[in-house]
């Protein structure tokens, strides 16, 4: 182990932005769901050090914050403190092969990012697949299924590598979807129907944009419920719908109430008569504006606790005596990003469509891919924006949107996705709708 040099990882190059404190470093690491932020630089001809069980060595950063860190510096002199960011893309590829993080909920070492030099990762794919299965509690019924999923996992490692090259400002790697083919992922975890917004949809009025705050987040104001999980059901559209109405209802009543997605899955069959195959169809997909229309006609949505989510299509059990939130009106927001921001600030979280091609491998950071289709296939919730999401590859700060997803807190940044603003990346500006809630008098 004496031939391996520990290198601290922070946010880019010291002489460009200045060193960061260990505490800031730990905060950043925690945002990625991990504590370990160390790499080991290989000396020519050596093998990587291991710990029992064959895992590559990975120290927990918090234990190195004090005297132990100083002791390691003394034992293993650091010739060049590279400050490169959790995406590692400014590290010399020829010298680095492994980026492993210690998961904060498990003692298993899990690959959290696939960097361009991944040949070693593919050679150790079975070991990493075992770590993946433990972390996400994956089991397979037969040896044949296990072998098939291992093959899919290897393909997704290569896919994450491609995504990392195309989307270098984000972190791409192993997620809970790493044993699914792209087709399975689209069928079971997306669900936005590829439809146009109806031509007669009400357009949101133009709002003033001169005094918009530089940063804004409805989570800080209590208007966003906890991250939910749609499971293996193409019901993303229902979560986007409830999220927007939950926020609007908060603005109208001052109370945050979690609303029922299952009511929409079971009961909403609203259609656009001008578009064939446009009906909301439970786990087979739907559209947020159609769901708002249904909610307006039905008289509202009930609480989640009164109509719990099952993740399967069922018989409608809506009880209109238990309505917790009603739609007053809804409208479509223009493609202008300042207008989107203005509507977000004034009206609450917005229902948004997006192309989710990079989301299957997304781990964290600000996603700003060089290439992304604008064919929308996933419904999400826009809850805020930031002015300065650091993008070291592009050598500048990038403004970004904050997206609430519906794949549970173990995905992305505690269930959230950041995507850069300004260029309609992945179609994020193409289908945005806002809803207003009617006040319900309490008897």
Folded structure, characterized:
- The protein is an alpha+beta fold.
- The protein has 2 domains: 5-166, no CATH class; 189-438, Cysteine proteinases (Cathepsin B, Chain A, Alpha-Beta Complex), CATH 3.90.70.
- Helix content is 27%, strand content 19%.
- The protein has 11 helices and 16 strands.
- The chain has helices spanning 14-17, 22-31, 67-75, 119-123, 125-136, 143-166, 182-189, 236-253, 261-267, 288-298, 337-347; strands at 5-8, 38-41, 50-51, 55-56, 100-102, 109-111, 170-172, 216-217, 301-302, 323-333, 350-354, 362-367, 378-391, 396-404, 416-420, 432-438.
- Strands 7, 8, 9, 10, 11, 12, 13, 14, 15 and 16 form a 10-stranded mixed sheet that branches. A two-stranded antiparallel ribbon has the order 1-2.
- The longest helix has 24 residues, at 143-166.
- It starts with a strand and ends in a 5-residue tail after the last strand.
- Residues 1-111 and 391-395 have low confidence and may be disordered.
- Residues 129-185 form the Cathepsin propeptide inhibitor domain.
- Keywords: Disulfide bond, Glycoprotein, Hydrolase, Protease, Signal, Thiol protease, Zymogen.
- Pfam families: Inhibitor_I29 (PF08246), Peptidase_C1 (PF00112).
- One of its GO terms (molecular function) is cysteine-type peptidase activity.
- One of its GO terms (cellular component) is lytic vacuole.
